[in-house]
Design brief:
The protein is mainly α. It contains 3 helices and no strands. The protein has one domain. The radius of gyration is 21 Å and the shape is elongated.
C-alpha cells in the first residue's frame, strides 16, 4: 500500500471519529434523554473527539502505526529476518 493511500485512509478515519463525536453530541441517534444516557452520550462524544484530534495530530506529524509498531518503509523488518540475515545487516552497518 503506498503512502498516499495510507494518508487518505488516516484522514478519512479522523473525519469519521470527529463526525461520530458530533452526531453523539447532538443526539442524532435518538438515545433517551435520561441523565445516565445523556452522560454516556457526552462521554462517548468527548472521547471520540479527543481520539480524533490525537489521530489527526499523528497523521500530520507522519507517525503511522500499522500492526502495533511504527511503520518505516526504509527500515529493515528485523523481526522477520533470519539470524544470518541480521548478522549480514550488522556487518553492512559497520562498514
Amino acid at each position: 500500500m503506498n503512502q498516499g493511500v495510507k494518508m487518505f485512509f488516516g484522514f478519512f478515519m479522523v473525519l469519521v471519529y470527529l463526525g461520530v463525536a458530533l452526531l453523539m453530541a447532538t443526539n442524532f441517534f435518538g438515545w433517551p434523554n435520561t441523565p445516565t444516557w445523556t452522560a454516556a452520550r457526552w462521554l462517548f462524544a468527548v472521547v471520540l473527539c479527543a481520539y480524533g484530534i490525537f489521530r489527526d495530530y499523528r497523521e500530520i506529524k507522519g507517525e503511522h502505526t500499522y500492526g502495533m509498531r511504527t511503520y518505516d518503509e526504509n527500515d529493515e523488518q528485523e523481526q522477520y529476518m533470519t539470524y544470518a540475515d541480521r548478522l549480514k545487516n550488522e556487518e553492512k552497518k559497520q562498514q
